[in-house]
Amino acid sequence: MRDKLEDFIKDNKEHFDTEAPRAEVWNKIQKGLDTNDKATGTSTHWFWKVAVAVLLIAVAYLGSEKYFGSEMREESTAMEEFKELETFYTQMISDKKMMLSEEVETGEHFSFLEADIQSLDQNYEELKSAFESGQETPQLKSALVHLLKQKLYLIEKQLEILEETKSETSEGVSSL
To answer: How far is Cα 4 from Cα 2, in angstroms, rounded to an integer?
Structure first.
């Protein structure tokens, strides 16, 4: 069973095709179609603009996180490495100083050695404060380690000199 309206339209199709709506009606229909196209296009453009903006923000965030995150890890690794070196050399220096203080007789005092060590300590503290304030460059770290090595070298040399003078003194006493 067919729909009665459909049957009516099919039977009277010729009568409908002869009549044409006025131009004014077509203009209104066309304006309605244009505004629907613009509204649909505008909402689509708006959606894509938002989607692109969100994508750019996400990429920028992830990129900066990767870049700055790795930089922070490198800085912390450099600081940890420096702390290990500092602990190692500081321990060696304190051991050598203790040996030196045991070797030095109560009346003797090496003022030139103390002045050199004090000068190295002062330079070391200045560089260390710069290093810890964020200037963690390999050159600065190398300079800090070099100052620690110099300090250790001075103390070791003084110990060698003391050993030589002891051996010369003991040889001089034994030859008498």
So the answer is: 6
